[in-house]
């Protein structure tokens, strides 16, 4: 069960809320009159998205997409293995698009998805991620709006899972145990 895994709090809910508030202020300033399309990448971003949009509080559209990148373990699936499981269900041509991610790890997923969206010819395309793990970068991508930088530890909570577990935690925690 979940209680067998040793976790330590990396970012408290208060620290997360402060980061979300800061990001929302930046996004609000840039998109206030643009009726942007926010595309949240399922599943990990659902908690972040819910908090973020309530702080934005201006006209915008919310869409979802699902990509496959991680398998059942803690490692990325590797280059070339990313697939669109559920594509965006609206026409984004000519729209201002902001991708909302929970974590940029190797960067492979975001790089793949941004290129996928670019082919749909949005008016603009930017990336917002709650967290980034620079120690794991394989593909350098520009994160236009970044919340928190995380050390080289596997993190869970605030929507982020390990093997579908721990998404419910209100804080972001590091797994201290090995596999
Ligand atoms: C996570 C996260 C990113 C991706 C980042 O999703 O939401 O999409 O991994 O990893 P990368 O930078 O190494 O490509 P995951 O595949 O775990 O799915 P989930 O959001 O449904 O948990």
Number of helices: 3
What are the secondary-structure elements, in order, as H or E? Answer: EHEHEEEHEEEE
The poorly predicted ranges are none
Q: Might you state the CATH topology name?
A: Rossmann fold
Q: Which strand order spans the largest sheet, edge to edge or round the barrel?
A: 4-3-2-5-6-7
CATH class: Alpha Beta
Class from secondary-structure proportions: alpha/beta
The CATH architecture can be named as 3-Layer(aba) Sandwich
The figure for the number of domains is 1
Question: What can you see in these coordinates?
Answer:
There is one protein chain. With 179 residues, the chain is of the alpha/beta class. It has one domain (13-150): Rossmann fold, CATH 3.40.50.2020. The protein is 23% helix and 29% strand. The protein is built from three helices and nine strands; from the N terminus they run βαβαβββαββββ. The chain has helices at residues 13-31, 46-56, 108-118, and strands at residues 7-11, 37-42, 61-68, 83-86, 96-104, 124-132, 145-149, 155-156, 172-175. The strands form two sheets. The chain has a six-stranded mixed beta sheet with strand order 4-3-2-5-6-7, sandwiched between helices. The protein has a three-stranded antiparallel beta sheet with strand order 1-9-8. Helix 2 (46-56) links the parallel strand 2 and strand 3 (61-68). The protein is globular. The chain starts with 6 loop residues before the first strand and ends with a strand.
């Amino acid at each position: 069960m979940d209680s067998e895994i040793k976790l330590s709090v990396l970012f408290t809910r208060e620290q997360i809320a402060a980061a979300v508030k800061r990001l929302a202020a930046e996004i609000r300033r840039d998109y206030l009159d643009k009726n942007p399309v926010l595309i949240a990448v399922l599943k990990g971003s659902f908690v972040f998205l819910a908090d973020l949009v309530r702080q934005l509080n201006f006209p915008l559209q919310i869409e979802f997409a699902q990509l496959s990148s991680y398998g059942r373990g803690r490692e990325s699936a590797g280059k070339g293995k990313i697939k669109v499981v559920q594509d965006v269900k609206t026409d984004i041509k000519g729209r201002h698009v902001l991708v909302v991610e929970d974590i940029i790890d190797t960067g492979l997923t975001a790089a793949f998805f941004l290129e996928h969206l670019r082919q749909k010819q949005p008016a603009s395309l930017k990336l917002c991620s709650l967290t980034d793990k620079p120690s794991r970068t394989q593909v350098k991508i520009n994160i236009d709006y970044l919340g928190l930088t995380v050390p080289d530890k596997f993190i869970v909570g605030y929507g982020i899972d390990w093997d579908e577990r721990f998404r419910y935690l209100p804080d972001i925690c590091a797994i201290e145990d090995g596999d």
